[in-house]
Amino acid sequence: MSTLTEPALVAVPAAGAAGTVELTYRDAINAALRDSMTDDVRVLLMGEDVGADGGVFKTNSGLIEDFGPARIRNTPICENAFVGVALGMSLVGLRPVVEIMFADFLPTAGDAIVNQLPKYRFMSGGQCSVPVTIRVIGGGTGQFGTQHSATYESWFGHLPGLRVATAATPGSAYSLLRAAIAHDNPVIVYEHKALYGRKGPVTRGEVAEIGKAQVLRTGSDVTILASMLMVERSLAAAETLAADGIAAEVIDLRWVRPIDLPTIRASVERTGRLVVAEEQVHAGGWGATVISELTMGGVAWRSAPRRVSLPDDYPVPYSPPLETLIVPSAAGIAAAARSAVGL
Amino acid sequence: MSLREPDADTRRSWFSTMLRIRAFEDRIQELFMSGAIGGTTHLCQGQEAVSVGSIGSMEPGDVQTNTYRGHGEALALGMASETAFAELMGKATGGSGGVGGSMHLIDFSKGNIGANAIVGAGMPIALGAAVGFQMQQRPNVALSFFGDGAINIGTFHEALNMASLWQAPVVFIITNNLYGEYSPISSTTSGGPDLARRADPYGMPGVSVDGQDIDAVHAAVSAAVERARGGGGPSLLEMKTYRYRGHSRSDPARYRPAGELEAWKERDPIDILGRRLAVEGILSAEAQLGLRAAIQAEIDGAAERATAAPYPTLEETSSYVYAD
Known about the structure:
The complex is a heterodimer of chains A (343) and B (324). With 343 residues, chain A is α/β, with parallel strands linked by helices. Helix content of chain A is 35%, strand content 20%. Chain A is built from ten helices and 14 strands. Chain A has helices at residues 25-39, 63-71, 79-91, 110-123, 170-182, 229-243, 261-271, 286-296, 320-326, 330-341; strands spanning 20-24, 43-47, 72-74, 95-100, 133-138, 163-166, 187-192, 199-203, 214-217, 222-226, 248-252, 255-257, 274-281, 306-310. In chain A, β4 (95-100), α4 and β5 (133-138) form a beta-alpha-beta unit. In chain B, α1 packs across α2 (48-55). Chain B has helices at 8-33, 48-55, 71-76, 81-88, 122-135, 154-165, 214-229, 260-265, 269-279, 285-308, 314-317; strands at residues 63-67, 112-116, 142-147, 170-176, 179-180, 183-184, 206-210, 235-240. In chain B, the strands form two sheets. In chain B, strands 2-1-3-4-8-7 form a six-stranded parallel β-sheet, with helices on both faces. Chain B has a two-stranded antiparallel sheet with strand order 5-6. Chain B is α/β, with parallel strands linked by helices. Chain B is 42% helix and 12% strand. The model of chain B has no long low-confidence stretch (mean pLDDT 96).
């Protein structure tokens, strides 16, 4: 937003005249937090180590200096209680953003996220709204090991009352987070830790539409649907496929709840082929849901849908070659697409 | 610290409210046991002084969270008994339009921001409201009611730690009725019978109170509320009380030793206040009888009207899921 005044300590560059700047994914998150907090005094950020030194992943640089320790609120290590605290804050008029350092810690806050946030308005008969945003840092490839590499993005897609977003690009990281903070329902926004250094255009002030996927590359032969790190790898796969004469359409899922079936369906009705690329176990996930919904909806498949995902029965390992093997690669996605088109 | 002494009118109204809660719970017990209402319920007969005395310390703008055994708090905060009956019956005229049920009597307009069916979940929520008040510089306080069974779950310790760290205006109230579901507290809880000692490691005042004596309850909660409102931080209060019924509808409470229930009924909280009001010339024994009859008639009428109310539809209640 061009009207923002940028304090001296800010790491993020001020918005240009057109409002679009080149930012890293990390700085896009910083900008979304900064812009939301500047625009709305009710917004605050809380979680473990969110203030000191910009936070564990340096997404919060300069925020505690500019907004102070009450609004950049460092918490003890107690996810279940501090998510509950955020809920209580939202009931008296604040709009808290909670940072969960690793997606693997979400189960620790399981009650607050599963039983409280999504059900609270419902159980009260619509007496309240729960504008809580949960930023979750997920994903593998960094050798973080079995308990620091999960996404679990589809777990929370099963909960009426919740919204779940996933950010694949700096632009999405910014606009999805702004949308979540502005939204009157609880939203989980996933960040992928392998993407923090990626650069891309960010439109300051842009607020993403809830539940809208994004077509990042058009093509008529096969649709590749992906989230987070898998989007980047799908785009790389599409490049190699183009060299083979295969035109792949790449869609960034963006919302796990609600899933943008109309956008996905429109694409698949043109291509007749689908690859879902997920950094999670396939069973019970959004990829399986999309395939099932499209099939039930009568899509005329030209070939059976393909999936690229984490193994069904093997957690994310530490050892670098093993981790590289199990997290889907661009080559793996390209191979699935080739197989879908019969090459 | 200037504690407000409750006047005669206030104490008369406490007596009425306790009678209303007792009559409501007795009727609910009948309706569940006869099968007129399905599912389960958790009743609070015997604990009325804790609900009414504590809530008597709240000011407009203050909030509280309570639990699935929260009918007493809901009625003490002014929910109409007809609205409460309707909610327990799953009717459209219930406080949550019938989708909540017995464990979720909620009324934001009266500061009742949550009745939770998950043990321990209300404490962080009350704390969050209190921190919100602090950040907004509002002169309000949050209370959190929970049972003795909840002091062994993580959120109790997590919430007390943060409340003390941030000096939040919150008062934690343990309704110690001696049983966590079917288990006597001595079999589940370390550290001795005075649960208020759990305040010590968190550096906040911890006070054990006779939960059958509404004057004592009110004095203790008022002191904690005034302390919190004045910036003095959180407190933990233990109300020593007893539930006359089992944990839930299906529990006949056979695990209680013989004579225990009868001994507690000797110290019934309604009788204690009633005797005091009679002796002090505030409400005569005859007037009390009249009041009991009037409240019973009110409860009868409320239950009847709730029974006649319509059930909600999916269409009417679908807007409860998402705001906007």
